[in-house]
Amino acid sequence: MEQKIKEFPAFKVHGFIMLAVVIALTLFGGWYLWYSVQGLGALLGRGLKVADFIGGDEFFAWVAWLAATLLIVVIPSLSGFFSVEPNQAVVLMLFGKYVGSVRSSGFWWTNPFASKQKISLRVRNFNSKIIKVNDAQGSPIEIAAVVVWQVFDSAKSKFAVDDYSEFVAIQSETAIRSLAIRYPYDTSDETQTPSLRGIPDEIAHALQKELQARLEVTGVEVIEARLSHLAYAPEIAQVMLRRQQAKALIDARRQIVEGAVGMVNEALNRLSTEQMVNLDDERKASMINNLLVVLTSEQTAQPVINTGTLYN
User: Fold this and answer.
1) pTM here?
2) Which of 25, 66, 135, 151 is packed most tightly, with the most Cβ within 10 A?
3) Confidence class for position 301, pLDDT limits 50, 70, 90
């Protein structure tokens, strides 16, 4: 089984130092080439043959050194220069082998035969498409999320998958679907059964944890993951809206009735304690009925004044 590749620092030299060395070698080689040409012209002017001059051991040695300097050192070394921007990494490969990464921003020089590929370490956003999925209760819902992520291991991002950006997009949508089928859209009691709408912070944490487990292999860190869209599917949206309205109306009525019963009980206890009036059971029942009607009615109660009883 092939060993997993992890990021490690690559060999590098400060670029301006190597640039000064290359310029110095180039100037020295150019000066000696010019000096050799001038000497060759002087010899030809005195009637010597070129073959006689080239046959000298000293000339051949210097020309060979100059060619090696220009062709082996100066010219190939130019491909070893590269720059690294802030929040960027350069992955180096030498003849198919990973030889390290450079994270430090600046101008650098490395092995000129190593290939270089830049990987962005900046924070990125992924906005998923709105997808339709059934929740834990089987109701079709529409859901989407925004994922904030960045690369923390350039070697894994380069060699673990073909395209880490596409991998993040596909795995994010898969994690969103997996999260949606584990929770209902909404519940009446969040303490017993958590829902997607009722506990947004916990849902965001669960989504981030699942995404991090899926993207660990690519060297990607999930900074934040949060739902950006959550709604019932259009085919059941109206029905669910009426159900929510009915539930809200029932809860409001229940609260109104509980408050009205408490107020009536308080009124009766106060009348009894202060002995303002003695009421029999029939009058208490009539008083309770009138108070409940007044307190729970949606319309303003109209007072009726009893001026007495008319006997024929």
Assistant:
1) 0.67
2) 151
3) low
Which range marks the domain in which residue 147 is found? 124-232
Report, in angstroms and rounded to the nearest whole number, the Rg of the chain calculated over CA atoms.
42
**pLDDT tens-digit series, residues 211-259:** 999 999 999 999 999 999 988 887 766 666 776 666 777 777 778 777 7
What's the pLDDT tens digit per position in 80-119?
899 999 999 999 999 989 999 999 999 999 999 999 999 9
66 and 129 assigned to the same domain = no
Cα dihedral 198→237→132→137 (10° resolution): 60
Any domain includes 7: no
Residues 59 and 80 in one domain: yes
Is 105 within the bounds of a domain? yes
Q: Which two tokens stand for residue 292?
A: 């409940």
Select from 185, 210, 232 the last residue of a domain: 232
Does pLDDT of 43 surpass 60?
no
How many other CB atoms are there within 10 angstroms of residue 17's CB atom?
A: 11
